[in-house]
Amino acid sequence: MNIFRTILILACAFLAVFGEATLSAPRHWLGAQVDLLPALMVYTALIADLPAVALLAVLGGLWFDALSANPLGLSIMPLAVIGWPIYLRRDLILRDLPFAQLVLGAAASALAPALALLLMLSGGKEMLLGWGTLWQWLVMTGAGAVATPFIFSLMEAGNRALGYQERVEAGFRPDREIQRSRRKL
Amino acid sequence: MFKQKNYLALGAVVFVAIVLLSLPTRATAHLKLAIGSWFLPLFGLAGAAQQLPADLADSVLSRRELLHQVDSLRRENQQLKEQQIQTVAIARENDQLRALFNWRKTMPWRLKLAKVVMRDPANWWRTIQIDLGSRDGLTNDLPVITDAGLVGRVSSVSLTHSQVVLVGDPNCRVSALVENAARDMGVLIAGGTLDTSLVELTYLASSANLKSGQSVITSGLGGVFPPGIPIGQIVDSRSVEYGLYTDARVKLNANLGSLEQVWVLFP
To answer: Which of A32, A63, A108, B105 could pair with A17 in a Cys bridge, judged by C-beta atoms 3.0 to 4.6 Å apart?
Structure first.
C-alpha cells in the first residue's frame, strides 16, 4: 500500500474543508459554497485503496461536520455511499479520461448534498431550504464536475513529486534465461 | 468482485456514522469542538496572512497621510466626547425618572469585540465561528450584534472559539416588534436561501398596519435578546392563512454576508 497517497488525500481533504469554511468568494459570486470532498472521494475510489476510501469517508465527514452546524457524523454516510460503488466497479471505468472524471464528479457532487439533506430531513431537522436550494445544488454539482479532473491532475502531480513509485518487476529473470552456446552440454 | 473485506470496511464506516449520530447532544458538541480545534493552527495562519497586507500598507503610509488621519481621529474623538457628555446627562435623567416611578434600573450593555474566523461550509445553515470562547467569559445564547444591528446568538462555546447562529437560520428565532403606532409583534424566522439580507417576520396580527421602511427591533420577549436592538426594516407584507395573520419580509441592517468583526453582548 502506498501510504503516502493516503496521507496526501487526507491532507487535501483537511485543506478543502478549511478552505470551504474560510473562503467566502464562491458564496458571494455564485450564491453557494462549493464542496470538494465528493470530487476527492471520486479520485480516491478510482485510484487509491480501500482503507483510503474508508478513512476519507470518516475523517472528511467528521472534519466537515465539526466546522458546520450539521449533526456530527452526518457527512460520513454520503461520502461512503459515493465511494463504495465506484471502488467496487473501478475496473470497468475509464478513469484516465477527463470526461469520465467529469461525469463521476458531477454525479458525486449532486448525490452528496442530496443524501445529507435526506438524512437530516428523515431525522426531523429543520434547515434552510427553498427554491434557492435548487440553484445551490446545481452550483455544487457543476463546480464538483469541473473540480474533479483538476483534482486528478493535482493529486497525480503531488504523488509524482513527493511520493515514491512502486517498484516494477521486470519480465527478465536470469535463472530462466536459455543458455545458448556451441559447447555441447 | 464483492469481497468480504469490502463489506467489512463499509460496515465499519456505517457503524462509526451511526454511533456518532446517536451520541447524546452534549457529547456530540464536545466532540465537535475537539475535532474543530484541529483547525486552530490554520485559523492562526490565515489570520496572520490576512493581517499581513494591512501591516504592509501601514508601514508604507506617508507622513502626510498619517497626519491627516490623526487630525480626523482627533475631530471624531472630540465629537464622541461631546456625545458622551450628553449621554451621561440623559442617563442621569433617566435614572432619576426611573427612581421617581419606582421602575427597575436597566444595566448598560457590556460588549466584547470578536473576529469572525470562519463560516459554515454547508449551504443549508447560517452560522459563523468567532475567536472568543469560554476563557473570555462566553456562554450559550449571548446576543451578537454589529454597529448596524442584530447578527445572531452564541450557539456553542469552546475554550477559544464559539459558534454563532445567525438571524435567518432556522435555529435562531427572534421575538421582534415593528416600530409603528401599534407596535406590532411577531417572530423572526428563516428567510430566503440565496439572499442573506432578507428574513421573514411572521405571526404578526392580521390587522397590523405595516409600511415599507418601518424599523424592526427586538422585543425582549424570550429572554435571549434584550429589547431595543435594531434588526432591520420592513420591505413588504402579505396576509397568510386566509387572513389569520400577516407575514412581512424584513431587510436586515447588518450585512451578514460580509461580517468581519462582531460584538458579543453580555447581560
So the answer is: A63
